[in-house]
Amino acid sequence: MAGSNIIDLNPELLSAAAESKAWPFEEAKKIIERYKGADFPETILFETGYGPSGLPHIGTFGEVARTSMVRHAFRVLTQDKVATKLLCFSDDMDGMRKIPDSVPDRSALEPHLHKPLSSVPNPFGGDYASFADHNNAMLCRFLDTFGFDYEFASATRYYKSGRFDAMLLRAAERYDQIMAVMLPTLGSERQATYSPFLPISPKSGRVLYVPMKHVDAKAGTITFDDEGTETTLSITGGRVKLQWKPDFGMRWAALGVDFEMFGKDHQTNAVVYDRICNILGGRAPEHFVYELFLDENGQKISKSKGNGLTIDEWLTYAPTESLGLYMYQRPRQAKKLYFDVIPRAVDEYYAFLAAYPRQDWKERLGNPVWHMHDGNPPAIDMPVPFSLLLNLVSASNAQNKDVLWGFISRHTQGVTPQTHPELDQLVGHAIRYFDDFVKPTKTFRPADDVERAALEDLDKALGALPAGANGEAIQNASLNVARKIERYQDHSKQSPEGGPGVSGAFFQMIYQVLIGQERGPRFGSFAALYGIAETRALIERALAGQLA
RNA sequence: GAGCGCGUAGCUCAGCCGGUAGAGCAACUGACUUUUAAUCAGUAGGUCAUGGGUUCGAAUCCCAUCGCGCUCACCA
Hints:
EC number: 6.1.1.6
Distance between the termini: 48 Å
Pfam families: tRNA-synt_1f
InterPro entries: aa-tRNA-synth_I_codon-bd_sub2, aa-tRNA-synth_I_CS, aa_tRNA-synth_I_cd-bd_sf, Lys-tRNA-ligase, Rossmann-like_a/b/a_fold
Subcellular location: Cytoplasm
Organism: Mesorhizobium qingshengii
């Protein structure tokens, strides 16, 4: 999505951008305001944080996607004259406090509890030296599949390389100030043992949460008790890390981060991060607080609860772009993230895409697709909405794309999987969505005696038809069956021969018994596409009681 | 306790840089000449939570109140 690509900067666009109220522009303007009356630094740094104890998830995607949108808006506003960078920072020096559920051999990790994730062996085997390396690689692969433009950063490597040393020494100098900020934010129990410095034990390799006995700013050392041994350790070179709140502030100060967004759960703490950053002589980045995602019951989505939707699940049923749209829209509102929102997101995406070419620049800059595609949305013709496809799959009970395409091409000429590959993709998504969500809710009912006889007659009638019979022929054959049955005679209608017409109840019965739905497409067309032999097999199964 | 968000048609929501209320679904009516429908036309339904303010004009901006939800206060 966002990249170091060339972006469009025509004059009308630029003047519309200056006025735009779209949230990425609002955020980008905060960064410009930040440097008002001064020169921009060499590179404007956008950061997103990532905790590598789990796999990348939908929140990771949202944060990177949204940050990329702000970055792009900034590039447009500054006419791309200022270099920008998105740093995806992995806090892989964090101690492994518990063993994740997802690993294969949990007991093998037990000896490594509380060690930095980058020192924990990789439980998945393979090419990566540590657990953190593995998860970091998963993150990068994840981001790469979406085409994000970013630079990966490992906390462990930054600490060990000495990149944070100057700031760590300053933190020792200003230890009292940092403590003065931190202590009031803690409960009394934690206050007693709190330390912003977390030494890595030379003895056990663990990240220690121990009180400081002495902090020597001049020597750049800390002294603490390590399981009975009084230990003095240099705070530089990755021997000591900072506790997370000071870590945020220190990192911002050390790297000169200009923008970092985070979820509402960080909001209260952000003030603390900022103050630490200031104490260390840095300027806190611009923030943007986004709302958390909720499940269908309005509960916060969390990995541990396993509620809500995973990114893989979303992408099983819909194209990536629909998820990008979801991320663009109303980031400050808590939105429900569950399966029901997918069809709407998909259809809205294509609707926005279709509207784009005929919009003026002001409207375009308010159109999500402009932000999602770095100002260069693709031209895609989507003749059939996703909601309609779902309807159709459900009605036809389609098991594969061919059946569905049969219906589609009947109604829209010149549309084929070749001319409309996106639609073809969507057809596949619709079938999967149907299988997983609609199908389980279907309720088949058994046929009573009259219905049973009617279906048997229908079966025979179908059997008498030639193999290639068309929809019309099948429809007429089934009507002939129904006309003989008293229950389905409708005397308010007339058959071609002058007798009573066929009641709609006949077809309703067919769908209730055969497909488990109240309605369906014209039966003749359905049977023609579904196949006469297949339809007869379906009747057989229904009569054998295998459906209800 | 602190912070954030929400309260608009039966349901899900859009509209919110102010200018006579919208969509989808549901409901109802009718057309399509054997009603099974990815069709078309139409109807109905809202004191835009409440009270005040700014304004010629407020669902939209400001203040207050009520209701609902979430987050943080242990860890990251």
